[in-house]
What we know:
By secondary structure, this protein is of the alpha/beta class. The chain has one domain (6-296): Ureohydrolase domain (Arginase, Chain A). It has 9 helices and 8 strands. It has helices at residues 45-52, 86-98, 113-122, 153-159, 179-187, 195-200, 203-214, 246-253, 278-296; strands at residues 25-30, 73-78, 103-107, 128-133, 163-173, 191-194, 219-224, 261-267. Strands 2-1-3-8-7-4-5-6 form an 8-stranded parallel beta sheet, sandwiched between helices. Helix 5 (179-187) links the parallel strand 5 and strand 6 (191-194). Keywords: Hydrolase, Manganese, Metal-binding. Mn(2+) binds at residues 110, 134, 136, 138, 224, 226.
Amino acid sequence: xxxxxxxxxxxxxxxxxxxxxxxxxxxxxxxxxxxxxxxxxxxxxxxxxxxxxxxxxxxxxxxxxxxxxxxxxxxxxxxxxxxxxxxxxxxxxxxxxxxxxxxxxxxxxxxxxxxxxxxxxxxxxxxxxxxxxxxxxxxxxxxxxxxxxxxxxxxxxxxxxxxxxxxxxxxxxxxxxxxxxxxxxxxxxxxxxxxxxxxxxxxxxxxxxxxxxxxxxxxxxxxxxxxxxxxxxxxxxxxxxxxxxxxxxxxxxxxxxxxxxxxxxxxxxxxxxxxxxxxxxxxxxxxxxxxxxxxxx
Length: 297
């Protein structure tokens, strides 16, 4: 056991105290919440994930034998946003993210992925491959009557050339979707793995499929916490039954070392609907698994 109790761990992710945006890997909170669901929002998601990450600092996991805190890593705090102004908020997020070499973002709702991908492209990193873990395709042209919303983020990312749809794979999809959006997504070349397909495969088989799509070129991970079943992640705005278990998501991520990861976001943690911090802890753990891949590599 660690000599310092977890409640005494510093407030940065994994207790990280360094705040230098010039670090090789930067953790940043992006508390964007534009209110496009009928449930309480995600603006406190970054803080909740950081608090829950205290549970992960007691040693290392034998699956990895690596400690992400040994990376050239900093927690640079939360990005500034323009409250109530979506385009201005996206521009601010992009500007701040572009100054960082490698972002691990704690959201905030899923729209934060769009400016993060724009920043990556600005640094010469796009179009990238994409592993998108989610209950929803998020390729609607509009969502809740808005063009810029958490359900349209990858419609824009594909159309802006930020991701290569032929190197894009979605895992955990199970929400209702109109046929036009579904057909458009497949027509772009996106690979969709439904939650049912994921349940019927082993994590090793699923990882092999992901690797086959992403290839050797730079790729990005966007992890919506509602990829997990509400039994494992109740604290989210749009829960969908039949999702992945936490062990399945971990089993997949742990087998994706050696890929050319260029960034990650963990989104849609909504603490107002959480129970005993299990959603925040799941989110913190998925970010920890990603960092472990980087440390292992």
